[in-house]
Inverse folding.
């Protein structure tokens, strides 16, 4: 068995007593030809075009993922409500992108809550977009408040674009996000904890270290991951 999530290996070992030597963990690939950082001037131009932020006054968090309950956008909305109540909202903005017509979509419910909280000027729900790279480049940081994740591609894509990530501890089971290295973690389903980390990152921005990024790219490169698959297939053929 090949899995991209160590938790799956643990479940298979526990539930069906699968021997550990029959399970292989291989992470997802990070494609740095599709996801890469824009030059600063190009980022500003694209940001103004997409979000009408001509003077770069906003601090924009991006959430990328469908509007199904697992993605837990409601926690980000509640966090923004908390920031507003504590007069800390200031120039913070949240832009969400995802399939609003997915199964069990929460899109309409979330829209109503945003309107009820009077946060329409601060939170925008968008449908899914092509060319996600330009949207990642146009925000300041990524939020991933999910209740659970496998091996989240958006985290890898954010790192490739030099964008720090704030992630729930439940979604960070693979420890892709390291506190104060490439982002921050918060307690799952805790909007107050998320609000605190959002305010912290806005005021103390995390710049991803070049060496850390290159190490990450090497570990998740197409060449490296492909070789792992080839080695497993060759061992199966030989045995």
């Amino acid at each position: 068995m090949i899995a991209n999530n160590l938790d799956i290996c643990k479940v298979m070992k526990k539930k069906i007593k699968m021997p550990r030597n029959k399970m292989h963990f291989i992470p997802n690939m990070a494609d740095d030809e599709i996801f890469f950082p824009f030059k600063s001037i190009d980022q500003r131009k694209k940001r103004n075009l997409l979000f009408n932020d001509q003077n770069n006054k906003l601090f924009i968090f991006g959430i990328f993922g469908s509007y199904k309950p697992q993605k837990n956008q409601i926690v980000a909305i509640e966090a923004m409500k908390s920031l507003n109540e504590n007069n800390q909202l200031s120039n913070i903005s949240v832009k969400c992108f995802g399939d609003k017509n997915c199964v069990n979509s929460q899109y309409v419910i979330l829209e109503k809550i945003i309107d009820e909280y009077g946060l329409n000027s601060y939170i925008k729900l968008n449908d899914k977009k092509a060319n996600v790279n330009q949207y990642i480049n146009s925000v300041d940081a990524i939020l991933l408040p999910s209740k659970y994740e496998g091996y989240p591609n958006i985290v890898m894509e954010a790192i490739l674009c030099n964008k720090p990530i704030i992630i729930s501890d439940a979604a960070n089971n693979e420890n892709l996000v390291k506190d104060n290295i490439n982002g921050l973690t918060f307690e799952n389903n805790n909007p107050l904890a998320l609000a605190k980390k959002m305010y912290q990152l806005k005021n103390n921005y995390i710049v991803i270290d070049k060496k850390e990024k290159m190490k990450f790219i090497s570990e998740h490169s197409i060449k490296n991951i492909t070789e792992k698959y080839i080695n497993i297939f060759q061992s199966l053929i030989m045995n």
Summary: The first strand starts at residue 2 and ends at 3. The longest helix spans residues 222-238. Residues 68 and 104 are 6 Å apart (CA to CA).
